[in-house]
Amino acid sequence: MMHSLTSLLLSTLLVIKGSGVQAQPACTRDFLKTAADSLLAAQTAGNPALLQPLSPSAVYHENFRNASLTSGSSLTRATKIDFSRHSLDTTQCATYTEIISATGAQPYVIGVQMFFTSAQITKVDLLSTTTGDWLFNATGTLRWASRENWGTIPEADRDSREVIKAAGDAYCDIFHDKSVVVPWGRPCARLEGGVYTGNGGQNDRCDVGIPSGVQLVDRRYVIDETVGAVSIFLSFSGIPDSHEFRVEKGTLRFVHTITVMNTGSGPGKGKGKRKRLARGDT
Ligand SMILES: *[C@@H]1O[C@H](CO)[C@@H](O)[C@H](O)[C@H]1NC(C)=O
Ligand SMILES: *[C@@H]1O[C@H](CO)[C@@H](O)[C@H](O)[C@H]1NC(C)=O
């Protein structure tokens, strides 16, 4: 009896295996957190080999360009990390990490989206900003980012992925379509580079200084409902950019931006363009 049960089980397993059904390993928060923590270890040590579990065929983009992870990348520069925060997206199997280095040899603010397939990192998209980038001031970024509460939202109060994504999209859409209704929170604060639109008080607003006539396109999302966060990597009219939002009860609470100016042909090219876009004279 025991024997026949075992062989029945075995043959059932073989049938499942033979049918080509590939069990995808579960993408858990623990798994994603361990991998995202390995990114911090790699950036701290300046050793890309510490980034795990990395697929041998992983694609690496730095500031929206194809690049080598092991030669000349951000991860090859040992960096003192003063502050970091992860978003974990178990639905897409992806992570977003914000990294602030304000007190090391050179200041950096870095945003990283990672995408996983079959329990391996298959794509790393890293934006690295430093002195000279849009409103860059790592001391300011650290000061404000570390005061904000991006903590876990009680389950009963959580928004759906759709609501969180729609809030971020509405903010991005209003740059070219002023008729879009954005769910502004009160208070709401924007950390744009190292500059804060508020002072951490109840009257902070983020519906200020929004340019017009700018297309925010090619959006790539990482969403973590447990903290109401959506990270959007996008092309800010051609400039590599990250917008990250914290959404509470359907409304925008915090906005963080990282905008890379030190690309394009010639230093400051992006900056002049970003300034014109900020003024609205496109
Ligand atoms: C990176 O390289 C791939 C393959 O050569 C190419 O298809 C893609 O357009 C490149 N991407 C960027 C951002 O340059
Ligand atoms: C950078 O931010 C810090 C902290 O908010 C501020 O004290 C400092 O004046 C800022 N530096 C510049 C150059 O704006």
UniProtKB/TrEMBL annotation:
Keyword Signal annotated: yes
Range of residues in the leader sequence: 1-23
Keyword Aminoacyl-tRNA synthetase appears in the UniProt entry: no
DUF8021 domain span: 158-259
Stretches the record annotates as Disordered: 263-282
Keywords: Signal
Top-level division of the source organism's lineage: Eukaryota
InterPro entries: DUF8021
UniProt-recorded name of the protein: DUF8021 domain-containing protein
Biological classification of the source: Eukaryota, Fungi, Dikarya, Ascomycota, Pezizomycotina
